[in-house]
Amino acid sequence: MADDVDVEASGLLDGLEGDARAERAELIPWLLERGVSIEQIRASSSPMLLASRRVIGDDGVYVSAREAAEKYDVDLELFERIQRAMGLPRIEDPDAAVLLRADAEAAKFTRDFLAAGISADELVQITRLLGDGVARAAEAMRYAALAAVIRPAATEVEIAQASEKLVSELAPMLGPLIQDVLLLQLRHAIETQAVTATERAEGQHLPGAREVTIAFADLVGFTKLGEALPPEDLERLAQRLADMTREVAVAPVRFIKTIGDEVMLVSPEPVPLLEAVLRLVDATDDDGDFPRLRVGLATGMAVSREGDWFGSSVNLAARVTGAARPGSVLVAESARDAIGDDERFAWSFAGARHLKGFKADVKLFRARRAEPAEE
Questions:
Q1: Is the overall model pTM greater than 0.70, yes or no?
Q2: Using one digit for the tens of pLDDT, what is the confidence trace for 150-172?
Q3: Closest alpha carbon to 316 in 304, 302, 303, 305
């Protein structure tokens, strides 16, 4: 096919001059030999990556949402909800061929999950959460892949060849990697997701509220840092906090989410959570380049929905965190009572505080590691 195309007359080099024109003229025949169409090249803002996109499903074939839904006997409205949950834009015309054939395969998975007993609303929630997480992972992979293939003085065709080779090697690993990570998370979630006797007796379809201990940890002075540091440095700080939190979040402790400069953890058992946040504070204190951390804990009833937790105990933990001093772990009375007299911890009473959103004053306690007993 490449021999049949007059690259100079195709218009694909319009606006390019010098080396840029010569490199594009070399790239186009190479792409055509791999089945990339002239239309795809013309429409692409980065033709260098078209070959690697082809490896992961961009064959240039488009179908309509109605075609995909009818092919797998899925309700069209539900299929469009699933598409939006995955991060694709709203489809204005369901009969327009605007979906890549690979993207339309989501209709098959929608059918299969519904057949397994997952409700439509639950499937949309699951898809939205997966889409959010995988989108961040895809962005990190994109950055890593480009960093691996782009080198000084590389021509367009050299970058295209290197990216195609890299993606061809990585693509077969992605499915098993995502599956392994998801199954690992499911194993730990099921292990720590207790279902009470009341819930079993009532036959509730979803587990309801249960007693858990909630912790928030945030970086002290993050707002002021934002006035002195560029956004990318702030992002790296927040990411380091998230990475350090994942390191200490060993089951039954669960890392839930990051909220800007703050992280959230939950555990059905309060003692492991207190141990985890004390390790986290120690780790940040030992790093001279890292801002100090403050942590708040509370225990109470909360309910899990869409991977997040809700309830007054969650709000209380957030308020307690705001009252904590830099480098300290502040514990609400509810969590202090739940932890009990564990000899690994030492306590000091921090007073009773009026916290926003709570009518009664809340008794607070500072937690630290107990000093080793002298011989």
A1: no
A2: 777 888 888 888 888 888 888 88
A3: 302
